[in-house]
Amino acid sequence: MSGNTATLSPAGAAIAPRRRNYARKYWMFIVPAGVVVVGVILFPWLFTLFMSTHDWKIGGGHTFVGLDNYRKLFTDERFLWSVLRTLYFTAMAVFFPMVLGVAAALIFNHKFPLRGLARTLFILPMMATPVAVALVWTMMFHPQLGVLNWLLSQFGIPPSMWVYDARTVIPTLVLVEVWHWTPLVMLIVLGGLASLPIDPYEAAKIDGASPLQSFWHITLPLLAPFIVVALIIRTIDALKAFDTIYVITQGGPGTSSETINIFLYLQGFAYYNMGYASAVVVVFFSMIVGLASLLLWTRKRVKA
Which CATH number covers residue 114? Predict the structure, then answer.
């Protein structure tokens, strides 16, 4: 070695070209993945942004209108009502599955006869496709022929119009979501319960803590990261709910169950107004990203 110049050993001299060869080979894997990302994710979003700045009709021409679609969107009462319905539906479709899913996980975490069979039966709704679920529940909701009104009559309760009444359509749709997705929350929380340490419970028992105190001060804090994960998944899933709502109500009666997804579908594929529908996509995507970022930030705070 002289000055600041180092002489590579024979082994080091052999390794350097090998590393360069490896670096060149990496591009064989990176480039195809990059092309897929650009083609499947980046390009569609850029094209959607482009369409949202145009008056674009399917089968016709398109004219650049700048931000007019967005200005129209925020003065469109039908769209604003769809936002409120989406938030209302999402709040209930997240709250009830979360509460019932955590309760079910606590029950199934204890040993009792036929627990395995009960778990299997409980998660069966989650295995069905949303369209199949919607078709079955549509028959059950029929005011005259549906089994639900027959069951109500057996207890002397007046029949309900279910999804055929603007006052009850959103809570009824939430009922379907609760039945369908509560098992998912239960599985996530049940996995968290299986990983909890035993030592804190033994110490609490020695100190004379009641079961309720143990749940509130030990189980709930330790389960918090799992509950937040279930909350994130359930919130995003409820926000983008489309197939169940569309199959059961098509946004009716009237527009009383028209969420953002239904409004978007109708604008794009019923009225053929792709420019306006693209603006809805951009706004809705921004809402989802903002809410997901808030939930992920909450999860980091919970883990910390």
Answer: 1.10.3720.10
Structural domain includes residue 28: no
First to last CA, the chain: 50
Query: What does pTM read for this prediction?
Result: 0.86
pLDDT averaged over consecutive 10-residue blocks of the chain (304 residues)?
49 57 70 81 90 88 92 95 96 96 94 91 93 95 94 94 96 96 95 90 87 89 91 92 95 95 94 94 92 84 68
Q: How many CA atoms lie within 13 A of 187 on its CB side?
A: 15
Question: Is residue 157 included in any domain, yes or no?
Answer: yes
Range of the domain at 298: 69-303
Residues 6 or more apart whose Cβ sits within 8 Å of residue 39:
none
Phi, psi values for residue 253, rounded to 5°: -70, 135
Q: Is the peptide bond before 197 cis (omega within 30 degrees of 0)?
A: no
Q: How many structural domains is the chain composed of?
A: 1
Whether residue 2 is contained in a domain is answered as no
Q: Kindly state whether residue 37 falls inside one of the protein's structural domains.
A: no
* Cβ-Cβ contacts under 8 Å for 18 (sequence gap 6 or more): none
